[in-house]
Predict the structure.
Amino acid sequence: MAGKFVVRTYGCQMNEHDSERIAGLLAADGYEEAADEADADLVVLNTCCIRENADNKLYGNLGHLKTWKDEQDGRQIVVAGCLSQKDREGVRQRAPYVDVVLGTHNVHRTAELVSEARVNGPITEIYEQAVVDEHALFPSALPVRREVSYAAWVTIQIGCDNSCAFCIVPSVRGAEISRPFDDVIAEVERFAADGVTEITLLGQNVNSYGRDLQLAARQRGDAEARVRPLFADLLVAAGSVDGIRRVRFTSPHPKDMRPETFAAMAATPEVCDHLHYPLQSGSDDILAKMHRGYTAERYLERLSEARQAMPDLAVSTDIIVGFPGETEDDFERTLEVAAAANFDYAYTFLFSPRAGTEAADMVDSFVDPVVASERFERLRIVVERSALQKHQARVGRIEEVLVEGPSRKDPSVLSGRTGQNKLVHFRPERPLRTGSYATVEITRGAPHHLEGRFVELVAEPTHRRRIPVATL
């Protein structure tokens, strides 16, 4: 008995991509997508566990959904993703009315488990690790129901071999497993044939892509092991696919950044001139406690190499404030590195202990929340100052923008993104379809966005699905 479904996503791009596959699986099983919970028979919560409030958010939503479920017979609730992988039976104990609890390694079983639960009652199925099956390993191998037609995620790697003290990801996503090179490019080609023009290569640590494939080849005695493709080769190959105008990737790890990656970015016009380069802290002592594998000096050296290869490179970052043991001197080092790096934008976070991580056990070294909040505000001023300077420097330039649709605040204004991943608002002189490329003259730079004047339409979308028109 199929019906209507809603998928709610929390967390990173990997979760967003998993949600597209969950939606695709349900659609393939006969379900239709509902506008909201009121019209749905099935609600899927695809969860994240990176920050402390993730638990509160989940169980708060589940409390509301219990009322929703009790209002009509036959309604079902599914909890998927990282939090269910981490908490396992905890979700079932706190919310016994949930019909299906599944983890990060068995997304491919979503539709089957929903059907089984309808007959047999509540099910909890958490695979300890990814099974050796393409559909289980890589969400990209599953049916897809993308939210937009002009852009697509492409999973190139799952899992993470790093041991960052603050991160729960290795526990819930498992060890690094790279997808075969030819499979990745074949999917990019399929997307391009369907009218997709922008792809984002996804992985927990994308720039370590292929190392496990090389190791396996060497263990087999493969003479070609040393020349097997790595991440730089993947960037070039993806950018060479006919119809692809933009290639993005996230997220790389600074300790694994190599000169050939910068060279590939510089030599491949389709690879966007944007690098997300997580700093986390500017203090060598804190970086060591985090197990990040680099120093502040090494970080800035690599960043300098990247900008030498690509002078117009936009750089974003992640920074954690208040990691256990962070002193005022440690924080001052972070401010100094953030100022020296001159980021285009930054995602800043107050430290949040996650059960199961090394940092969560450093209770005696936790930073006073009042102190951490004050530091957070000081950091915000530094990063917004550099962001404003970067954005104001774009004024007068002609930028190519991928149109994403009407602005949320003003439907008469369109929003889009440049190759540098900068948000641009502009008022068109004619209707433009989402997925179009247009040139815009930048007229104003704000800390978090640009404003501009429409110049001309560069390319219209060729998607096979109906594309909504962004009206004037």
Summary: Confidence is low (pLDDT under 50) at residues 465-472. The first strand starts at residue 4 and ends at 9. The two ends are 42 Å apart (CA to CA).
